[in-house]
Records
---
Amino acid sequence: MTLLDFARGPALYGSTLILVCGLVWRLTGVFLLPARRDRAAPGKGSYGALWGALRMMIARSLPRRTFLGRTLATVLLGYAMHLGLGIVLLGGAPHVLLIEQATGIGWPTLPKGVVALASGITLVALLLALVRRCTHPVLRLLSNGDDYLSLVLTLIPVATGMLLAEETALPYDTLLTWHILSVEALMIWLPFGKLSHAVFVFAGRAMLGAKLGRRGALS
Amino acid sequence: MTAVPPSMSPASKPAPRRIAESRSQEDRVRLDAAMRGFVSDFGPEAATWMEACLHCGQCAEACQFYVETGDPKYTPIWKIEPFKQAYSREMGPFAPLFRLLGLTPKVSLGELERWQDLLYDSCNMCGRCSLVCPAGIDIADLVEKARHGMFEAGLVPPDYLGALAGKERETGSPFGIPKDAMRQSLLEIGEKHGLAMHVDEPHADVVPAVSSIDLKMYPDSIAATARVLNHIGVSWSFRTDGFDADNVSLTAGDRVGQKRVTQAIVEAATRCGAKVLIMPECGHSYTEMRWEAANTVGHALPFRVLHMSEYLAECLEAGSLRLRAVETPADSPGVTFHDPCQVSRRSGRSDAPRAVMAALGLDLHELADHGPDSWCCGGGGGVALINRAKPLRNHAFAIKDRQVADSGADTVYVSCTGCRQTFEHGFKDLGRVTKVGSLLDLVAEQLEEREAKA
């Protein structure tokens, strides 16, 4: 078995298993805690908890004008890296092909140039985020090993993916192997660290939205 | 800290309330008590928030203490860092793994002591940070839980806040005012202002709770309450058995004292068959009664809970409150309004005071950040009651001072006793001549035919 076979076979199954089980475990650990029944009467402009949760899950993706003057850099970097990743993952031909092979569901892919641009923007945004985390006083204080590891684990698949797409002088199979292995490393770490925000930002928003929605205090 | 999650470890004797200097209890016991206090009412909501932080630092930009000082330690989510660490090490879904691999450091009592000024002196629990957080973390809620832990470990700031909460737990009143004295004070206020004062009536449709701080510092606001309710013409009564709405215990982190205050008011209002309980112009006491009291007493409340500004707006709409417009000279610079965080941002009622101000015909110049976006005055969350926090509080107040100056108004109206105090002290210390007024007091001055009904 070559390293590529290992990456495409046992490593893929293993990392997927860890990703799924880890996330299920983490979510279960949180959601199995006893929930309190809220007996307070809903507020005057109440949207109800469910609508509040749904609304907040979407609305909080948009920045609030009041804060933009002070948070613009974070917001721009956040948008750049997340939208870039989304475009590459869902629009890049090899990714769509992989999804189609695995699930039978496919869709038209984006032109290679668009995907390359998105990858470039993502890479730059990730690098800037890393620099910012090392230099901004607040981020330096808050950051722990998980923050840096999560950034690096996202950077490597993007970088290897770009090299793959650009057909550089490096051997294709070696690059592909490291691309897949780096994605698997990301998948393995995802449930344990802050990469799990892919799930938990929405869960957190839903909790706040439910609370404020019931009060009629969504704003 | 033990290897067993504190919430599941055998209950040791609860730590008595103490001040930071006290060392009569083992540090470990106090640490366990702190964690137990923190997680005692942990549900999926709080646990999700503990898992959701991105360390993006945006909450710092929403906090007056960070924005004005530039010190990163005032980043809101950092204020609960020891509790976050202890949670992920002792209680979170991967706690055993993280302990085994040494991924999260152990929290020490010394650390909690060092965190006292972050959890108490520099957090107004105003919730502005929860407005910016991309993960929707209600940091104010987590700070409240962390304060439960700090209280159990005996780490409440010992000066004003600690002393008042202690008195409140003992007597039900932060100043320890006995019922007879309270009744006497209320009757005297009625007499002084020539008002019919209703105290301890057996039946009343409307019960206004009152802040002891009002009784001590702003008795005119108590007179204004009586004057307005007499004008509206409802059956109403103060209740000395459920009078004190301050709930200093809530901000100190003392759940026993908090429950005592809440229960007394609920029982008193229930006893006289109240349909409406009005919370005075006092922020946190309102959110406690409006959103938590039913959960504290374990059943839906048999009456509605309204903030004074909500009640006034309702009566205006119903036509039972009739106001004369304020006569303003043509060259008046206008007025502005400071939204109390708990009513506006946390409860969604920015509209109520504005309806009242519109009826008064005020020339309102909104602050640059108003309504849910409003900056806290810096005194909320008990910070106004911590003497040593004054320099920091004044520092944080600078943002409010600037926004008021930018509005061009010469008067700031408030609808919260705590905000009123903070503004008065803040302006005084800065040598400003800007006036601070209570919206309720103004309403009481502008009642139509008030003499006939008073």
---
Amino acid sequence: MFELKEVALIYETKKQALAALKSTNLIIERGEEVGVFGPSGSGKSSLLFVMSTLKEPSRGEVKYEGKEITALTPSAKAELRRKEFGFVFQEHFLINHLTVRENILIPTRDKRGVKKKVEEITTALGLNDLLKRFPYELSVGQSQRVAVARALIGNPKVVFADEPTASLDDENGRKVINLLRSYCSKSGATLILVSHSAEIISDFERRIKVENGQVYEDTANA
Amino acid sequence: MLKYIWLYFRRRPGRILVFIILVAIGVAVSIVLSSIFLSFGETRNRISKVNENWITVQYLSDTGRKEEIDDSLKGIFADVSGISDVIQVDIAYLGYNLFGSARANFPVYGIKQTDIARILQLSQSYIVDGSVFYPGTNEIMVTDSFLKASGIGIGLVYEEISEVASMGLYNVVAALEGPSVFGIGPSGISEGRGAYGFIVLSERGFSIAVESELRSRIAGEELKVGVNGPISSRENIERSYSGYYLGVFLSNLCVALVFIIGLTMLNSVSIRERRKEYGILAAIGHSPATLGARLFFESLYQCAAGWIIGLFVGRIFVSYLRTRFFEPNGLFVGDIFVSTIWTLVIPAVTVVFTQVLIGSHLSRDLVGLLKSSEKKIGILKNRFKSINFSWLRFPLRSDGYRSLFVNITVFAVLVTVFGSLLSSLTDTVRDSGRFYDSCSYIQTVESGEIELPEEIVSRSRVVVPASLLNMDVKLIFGTTEIFIPVVSSKYSELFKAYVGDISESKFYVSEGLYDLINSGKVNGYGNSSPIVLPSLDGLSGIVFDEEVTSEGLLIFHMGDDLVEGIRLFASEAGIVEVVDRLTFEAKILTESQFIDLITSIIIYLQFFVVVIIAVVTVTRVVLGRRRELAIRSIIGQRRVEIGLLLFGELSLVLFTGAIIGFLLGAISWSVFRGLFLPGVYTASNVAAQVPLRIFMMILTVLFSGLAMERYLISRQDPLSIIER
């Protein structure tokens, strides 16, 4: 599904060049459950951004479903993100003037069957009573569940989660991880979850340790 | 405190500079507009001023001097005490076009060669160029300013006693300089049809008494003689200035409103963004009073800087106008001291309004202030949860677009009110010529029969002997002349088709003219009560009299082609007066010149201010929503979709504001007309150009806003925005 060849991401300033990713090679298959971990500043989030088209690598190739995606136009990248990918970040990044329901619906363009889909997903996430609330009326945990609902509403084939539990307590963090894993296992979607803690992803099918901008370990659970 | 202000200035130099520049522009524009209006008043003042030095006693005649009137007047002069000398004059009045703000009559005195030195000494004038005229010629001396206003050099000047300029009546042989505006020519300058009389000089300190005495004696002898002296001169000056003072007031009021509203809105944006800063300052021990004082001085310094720069720039512009506009048009710069002081209104009221806004924010509790941050700007309260239309969500649920909405509404009101006000002034000139859309009036300067060629007669509906009654209609700024045809009652039957059923020997007028006459806005009207004829258009009228000295012909034509044909005949036939559709088209061009200038200045000014404020507001909205737009971009919304969302929101806000503003403006205009302009003729309720101007304003704001949004979004990486 994903194939990264010699991918590097270098942040250049006037004074210095900082390599967030150095010549990374990686293949991720469809339906895999991948946990990416490593210390802060190791380049794990950069890896996620490059794969999800949010950052353009400084060099190297990123292929998705056999197609090179780094050279796509901004519109084509946006279309790809909308149709194929779902995102959950450490912060929920909800839009304050939109209600919970409207926030969930942002990625959807085709409104057919949406009502049923929203109902299913919000029931599963326990958001049914919150649909008409604004984000600033929600707790942090509730907000993150809304962000998960927004990520999943479009039936993504890949879910990218960047430190989704960092601002949550243990219980809520576990809930969010379980929600994402449950969706991916049922739908056959790929989950790529980034965390600074190895413990959170300890039971993931595949764990990738990133250090100094390189894949340091790539292990699979039996 | 200065250190704090300096820190603020360093943090927000762009916005402060925009503010200072806007204040400066407002002040400079006020000064320039005042100087334009006052220059017209000052020039009229100088024409009237000639009668401060002497008393002019004059009568009109078509056949030269009338001995019996002259003898009667000489008898009166001999009896009135306080008269030191009398100079016999004849007077020609030449039109002095004050850059289309209306005409003033410029007197040229025909006197004996030997009296030149006396009249120059009395009027404190002197000859600056050329040579003195010679008796028996049509040579005259006029002021430099008149030559400039007429666009001619020493050589030829045209006579404008009537509406048709006839070149070559006078040769200008020298120019005069002095505080008054008038001309001198040789005795006999008005030979034939013109004004005749005497310049009466009084002993020192007796001029007012002599003028009063002459008036009463002349009235007692029932002579049709006019007396102009210091008393009427003062009245003239007051009357001519009052219109221009009103112009200064209205234009400055408009400019002040535009800038005060704009500047306060600009400040409101700044204040909202700095709420957290106020909270921090309050938290570390600044009392609301100290904080209020600090912010007061901050806006005061900005306003003061803008005012001083504006004064400086305004004065430079006035100097520039003096050489490029006033002097070449024969205008004198008036005293702009009072209007300079008036410009203080812009910074002063802005400071007060800003302080009120600051006060309302400082009255919030400390936690409320501290929690205010740029991210949350725009969120009002929990409302409008069930809106399905995405373009309406942000505008209705937040106050992000509030200042833009208020801004566009207020400006739509201003464009409607001031656009209609300014257009109403040209309405009068245009509609005073409506009667002549279907007819032409021609007249010989000297009495005599006109023989129309067969070609014109055959293509005319009716040709009727007639004369013209000239009347002045007061405008807000100056006057305009209207021409009422006077026709013998025996021809009334012929006019049934045009003006309805005529049965009496009366003055028939349109409704518009009737209202003006009743409200005392018409000079030169001496007939009995006019009768309204609904079929008459605009400011039309017609007088049916028992006996009419046939001076000219009123030719009703069947098509427009005849207008040109009659004009051609008139020019081939020699000196004739023509009043027709083209006369009024020319009048509109010349007399609306000034109004067009003022309209353009005010309209462009409004555009300028509204665009600046709109761009600031839209930038603020877009910057405040950067995070939202970045999120939209990350989760897959394309730039086009985001752009369309902003386009829709902006369009809705702008069009709704504009429609509300237009309706409010139309209501305000009706109220304004009723309260402040009773009797002033306005052809339409709201000027036709107003919706177009508002539409253009919206388009300008919309596209500048979208350009700003595109620039801000396309240049930034969404991840860097949300990570910030």
